[in-house]
Amino acid sequence: MTTAHLVVTFVTIAANAVMGVADLARARFVLANSAAVDVPPGWVPALGVLKLAGAAGLAAGLAGFTVWGTAAAIGLVLFFVGAVGAHVRARAFRTLAAPGAYLVLAVACLVTGPVT
Q1: Count of CB atoms within 10 A of residue 13's CB?
Q2: How many angstroms separate the CA atoms of 10 and 55, rounded?
Q3: Which residues fall within 8 angstroms of residue 114, CB to CB, at 6 or more apart?
Q4: What is the pLDDT of residues 2-24, one digit of tens each?
Q5: How many of the other CB atoms lie within 10 Å of CB of 102?
Q6: In 10 A of CB 70, how many CB atoms?
Q7: Quick count: other Cβ atoms within 10 Å of Cβ 95?
């Protein structure tokens, strides 16, 4: 496990945990961004649970369960590819930076992670 992997994974865990909680709390900015890409408000808590599950899986990977960490990184990559796609489909380019940054973090976790 490299220092780069540790740093990127800790940042990714924190970022997804914060956003997962914001989704569960149905924060105003979350609902506004979701509405901009035609995501029904009822889906927001479930999306938050997925982000929190990804963060937990990455944490498990750091704790020695490397397969879980790798699976979580793959899941987050797929999640944020979908989010970026939703923003592009809705032509919501103004709010594309956030899911794009989360996608980059998830890819970095996957690329720098341990090979099992």
Answers
A1: 21
A2: 9
A3: 1, 5, 61, 66, 69, 70
A4: 899 999 999 999 999 999 999 99
A5: 22
A6: 19
A7: 16
Instruction: Read off the tokens for 104.
Output: 């980059």
Between vectors from CA 103 to CA 100 and to CA 108, what angle results, nearest 5°?
A: 130
Does the pLDDT of residue 69 top 90, yes or no?
A: yes
Contact between residue 77 and residue 107 where contact means Cβ atoms under 8 Å apart: yes
> Which residue carries 């009822």 as its tokens?
42
pLDDT digits (tens, 9 = 90+) for 19-39: 999 999 999 999 999 999 999
DSSP 26: T
- pTM score of the predicted model: 0.93
State the Cα angle at 24 between 100 and 53, rounded to 5°. Answer: 65
